Amino acid sequence: MNRRIGVLISGRGSNLQAIIDAIQDRRLDATIAIVISNVAGAAGLDRARAAGIETAVMPHRAARSREDYDRSLVDTVRAHDVALVCLAGFMRLLSPAFIDAFPNRVVNIHPSLLPAFPGVDAQRQAVEHGVKVSGATVHFVTPDLDAGPIILQSAVPVLPGDTAETLSARILVEEHRLYPEAIRLVLDGQWHLDGRCFVT
Ligand code: GRF
């Protein structure tokens, strides 16, 4: 497998930055071939440019349908010959038009211990539910929301008095550690899927 990756973002890009830092620190042997944002002003685009990484802005509103948009994403990703697509705060559901083009080659990071609290506002869901432990999950992307095979997880305590914001900040620290590590595992290729399970 080549070690070129594409990163899809919509916003802040702190996980993108963690991947950039891991590559620069040689904790992750990979090359970011392209960063794609569906939001023109995403701060993550500036992080990519500052690191000399090629960027593309692909506003979803310009597309006639979700499938049309996803097909144009496929074309852009393919043009950059990446082995792995990493979603890093990409706030759009991907249809089979995209996912089927890269089987077991799209990963995502989610701020909960899946399968608990899928979807938006996972940290707020965790606080409101009163769980004592939450965390972060890196998983393969399937057409079902936040439901694909789990690659790595990290647990984070929920402390008395936590708000969605304080818990998010604590989980984010773990996200930044976990995502480059999970990408390394996948790129190393020493794994298989045993049913739904990622096994190294
Ligand atoms: C992270 O919490 C990630 O888990 C979720 O979206 C957020 C993105 O943050 N999918 P950032 O853009 O990487 O800073």
Write up this protein:
This protein has 200 residues and is α/β, with parallel strands linked by helices. It is built from six helices and nine strands. The strands form two sheets. The chain has a seven-stranded mixed β-sheet. Strands 8-9 form a two-stranded antiparallel sheet. The radius of gyration is 16 Å and the shape is globular. The two termini are 16 Å apart. 38% of the residues are buried. It binds 5-O-phosphono-beta-D-ribofuranosylamine. 5-O-phosphono-beta-D-ribofuranosylamine binds at residues 11-15, 44, 88-89, 109-111, 172, 175.
Fraction of residues in H or I helices = 25-40%
State which percent range the strand residues make up. 15-25%
Bound molecules: 5-O-phosphono-beta-D-ribofuranosylamine
Q: What shape does the CA trace take?
A: globular
Largest sheet: 7 strands, mixed
Instruction: Specify the number of helices.
Output: 6
Structural class: alpha/beta
Average pLDDT metric: 97
Distance between the termini: 16 Å
| Low-confidence parts | none
N-to-C order of helices and strands: EHEHEHEHEHEEHEE
Give the total of beta strands: 9
